[in-house]
Amino acid sequence: xxxxxxxxxxKRYGHGPKANQVIHGVNAEITDGEFxxxxxxxxxxxxxxxxxVAGLEEITDGEISIAGRVVNHVEPxxxxxxxxxxxxxxYPHMSVFDNMAxxxxxxxxxxxxxxxxxxxxxxxxxxxxxxxxKPRELSxxxxxxxxxxxxxxxxxxxxxxxxxxxxxxxxxxxxxxxxIQKLHAELGVTSLFVTHDQVEAMTLAQRMxxxxxxxxxxxxxPEEVYARPATTFVASFIxxxxxxxxxxxxxxxxxxxxxxxxxxxxxxxRAGELILGLRPEHAVxxxxxxxxxxxxxxxxxxxxxxxxxxGRVGDAPFTVRVDATLASPRVGERVALRGDAAHLHWxxxxxxxxxx
Length: 356
Description:
Elements: E1 4-13, E2 20-30, E3 35-39, H1 46-54, E4 61-66, E5 69-70, E6 81-84, H2 96-106, H3 111-124, H4 140-152, E7 158-162, H5 170-187, E8 190-195, H6 198-204, E9 207-212, E10 215-220, H7 222-227, H8 232-237, E11 244-251, E12 254-257, E13 260-263, E14 272-278, E15 283-286, E16 293-302, E17 306-313, E18 316-323, E19 334-339, E20 345-348
Parallel strand pairs: 3-8, 3-9, 6-7, 7-8
Antiparallel strand pairs: 1-2, 1-4, 4-5, 9-10, 11-12, 11-14, 12-13, 14-20, 15-19, 16-17, 16-19, 17-18
């Protein structure tokens, strides 16, 4: 069993009034066999949180348990975990087989069992033909698979991945994501995966934790986080291009921003200062003169099967995703923009929290 419980976890560096707090009371319950992705920008505390689960960072306050056992003061080697890092950290003088087997030999696992475990992991990761090779004879993707194989043979209760795909090119990243998905489907081991890449988070996660400045902004499935972001940070971080956000004043079915008053398809959840959100793929362009919000087109990006139309509604920047087979507005043109009530998001202007 590899369930993980993170309760009110805090991390501070230093002591007293000058202490630097980098993790602010994170809470999460991770069930046995679940694949959780911790995602956020650089410096948000995601790797620090992972390292506290691993035992590589001390916990200042709070409690972490693995498989029902509190591990705050348990050595990393005794936590029944295996880590895969951004850097492969392979022994260059050893073969692939020896790299994967090394940890088991240290634990004095019988040679026959070592061979059986390495052969099984090599089969899962399609490394069988490379077991006699040295790391220098492998591609970057193959080296990362060896690093994953080294973790698999441990047969841990929990896998911890710290940005393992960051050193790979775009094509290899996509291939390795698929391999990790298949690996989890086959092994069913509880996994925590840290990344700054929202595409990795959306494609790999069963649930995702969105971190910002040491705080957990939201936890939920990729579908939940995308469809109902809890804060403006989540709304702007998850989704590419990010959600359009415009600050203004709502009153019934009217929304005023930057000298322009917009007609809403349904009343705002409350009157007063609010932030209106609309994803680029949910905005619809209509010809000038049609009913809708006035969009002044400033730029058009061609991206193969689609175009991104950038412009302004009042003083708020707006991006609209359109099919490349449809006629595109010209730069400088003024067109109409429409968003259905079901796709409008509302956030409190002061707290940045979702209100509707």
